[in-house]
């Protein structure tokens, strides 16, 4: 029977018979027989089964506090907190912005998994520009059959439409240690952008026969930059885990994907619209001419609307409400560019008291021959606007005869009145 032990003087025979059992000898001349089931249980199950100890029991914590315990080895702490998964930046030795200390470099050998990228960032507050100097990379991951890669760097400002603010360096051929020394500039960067936006720097491998391959990326919160102070970075690249396409995802994964998108939108803020580029506007109320002078200076990082990766942009302005429909002005069309310069001015004759009740709608369009023009983005300035658009309008009314230039973000929201006027 299970748990039964043999006597110290007993031993099993060498060849037991299943039918007769096993022979055991005690005193001289005595012979006893046990069944095979009892024989197989001898010295196998000495007692009740004890639970297996946890691995943490062999490595008790000795730090101060209730979890440290300060006990001796072999005594399990009352409760051990589960190990928290560290983010990739923490695994690489970099600190998060909440840690207080900024670590912008990481000393390592040449065998890092994805490689390292060296670059400089400078925010020029006076000109509203962000200068990105992509210097070099070191020890990139091989991506081609020859053990090398054809790397290039692309930049995106997040949150925002990638097509509207993508900048890209040249491609360096057949190297794992490329040197670019290229300066990429974002125009129309405001103090609000520095507070809320993140610069994504991705290193990719160019492949002429198939899709370009992702090597690694770095994300830098712009709030780490100080105006007019160049900041140097030398950081390890991190991996990016892309979500599967909706057609190949299970219902659970699709639910997770939708949840992540909703979470990202919630983190960006309620009612946030997709950015489609920037526009530099000049407003000035002329007391002598008794009217509003609107200057369309330039646009930056517009969304690409054509298959060639560019747009043929032009700008239209309206002063709403417009009962007589005579307030439309339109700039000329700039061909194949995402950063057009217009330098055109329009004049609206109106008393200052009446202008305070108006709203200036500015829309940017992509000109197409033989079909309706595509809406790129728009912005409204007036008493009902928010943020920088409202401030620009109020400053114009409060400071007559003063030209005020401000950058504004173009969003994907199509004004109802502009939606009925897609043609040039």
From TrEMBL:
Q: Which residues form the C2 domain?
A: 113-235, 275-408
Q: Could you give a single Gene Ontology term from the biological process aspect?
A: spontaneous neurotransmitter secretion
* One Pfam family matching this protein: C2
The organism's superkingdom is given as Eukaryota
Record PANTHER family: DOUBLE C2-LIKE DOMAIN-CONTAINING PROTEIN ALPHA (PTHR45729:SF1), RABPHILIN, ISOFORM A (PTHR45729)
Q: What is this protein called?
A: Double C2-like domain-containing protein alpha isoform X3
| Region described as Disordered | 1-20
Signal sequence, start to end: none
Entry-linked Gene3D superfamilies: C2 domain
Keywords, alphabetical: Calcium, Metal-binding, Repeat
GO MF annotation terms: metal ion binding
* CC annotations in GO: extrinsic component of synaptic vesicle membrane
């Amino acid at each position: 029977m299970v748990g039964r032990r043999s006597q110290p003087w007993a031993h099993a025979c060498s060849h037991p018979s299943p039918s007769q059992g096993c022979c055991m000898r005690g005193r001289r001349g005595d012979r006893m027989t046990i069944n095979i089931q009892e024989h197989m249980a001898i010295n196998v199950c000495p007692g009740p089964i004890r639970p297996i100890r946890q691995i943490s029991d062999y490595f008790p914590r000795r730090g101060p506090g209730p979890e440290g315990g300060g006990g001796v080895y072999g005594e399990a702490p009352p409760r051990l907190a589960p190990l928290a998964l560290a983010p990739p930046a923490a695994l690489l030795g970099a600190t998060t912005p909440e840690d207080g200390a900024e670590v912008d470099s990481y000393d390592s050998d040449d065998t890092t998994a994805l490689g390292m990228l060296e670059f400089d960032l400078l925010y020029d507050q006076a000109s509203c520009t962000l200068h990105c100097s992509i210097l070099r990379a070191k020890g990139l991951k091989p991506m081609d059959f020859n053990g090398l890669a054809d790397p290039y760097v692309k930049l995106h400002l997040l949150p925002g439409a990638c097509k509207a603010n993508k900048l890209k360096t040249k491609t360096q051929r057949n190297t794992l240690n490329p040197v670019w020394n290229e300066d990429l500039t974002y125009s129309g960067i405001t103090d609000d952008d520095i507070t809320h936006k993140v610069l994504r720097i991705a290193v990719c491998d160019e492949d002429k026969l198939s899709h370009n391959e992702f090597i690694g990326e770095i994300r830098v919160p712009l709030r780490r930059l100080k105006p007019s102070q160049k900041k140097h970075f030398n950081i390890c690249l991190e991996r990016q885990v892309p979500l599967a396409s909706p057609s190949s995802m299970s219902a659970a994964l699709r639910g997770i994907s939708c949840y992540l998108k909703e979470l990202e939108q919630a983190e960006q803020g309620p009612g946030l619209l997709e950015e489609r580029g920037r526009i530099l506007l000049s407003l000035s109320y002329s007391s002598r001419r008794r009217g509003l002078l609107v200057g369309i200076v330039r646009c930056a990082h517009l969304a690409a609307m054509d298959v060639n990766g560019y747009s043929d942009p032009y700008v239209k302005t309206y002063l709403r409400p417009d009962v007589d429909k005579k307030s439309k002005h339109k700039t000329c069309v700039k061909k194949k560019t995402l950063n057009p310069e217009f330098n055109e001015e329009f004049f609206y004759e109106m008393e200052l008291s009446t202008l305070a009740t108006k709203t200036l709608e500015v829309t940017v369009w992509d000109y197409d021959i033989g079909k309706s023009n595509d809406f790129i983005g728009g912005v409204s300035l007036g008493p009902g606007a928010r943020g920088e658009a409202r401030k620009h309008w109020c400053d114009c009314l409060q400071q007559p005869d003063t030209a005020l230039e401000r950058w504004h973000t173009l969003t994907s929201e199509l004004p109802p009145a502009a939606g009925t006027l897609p043609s040039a």
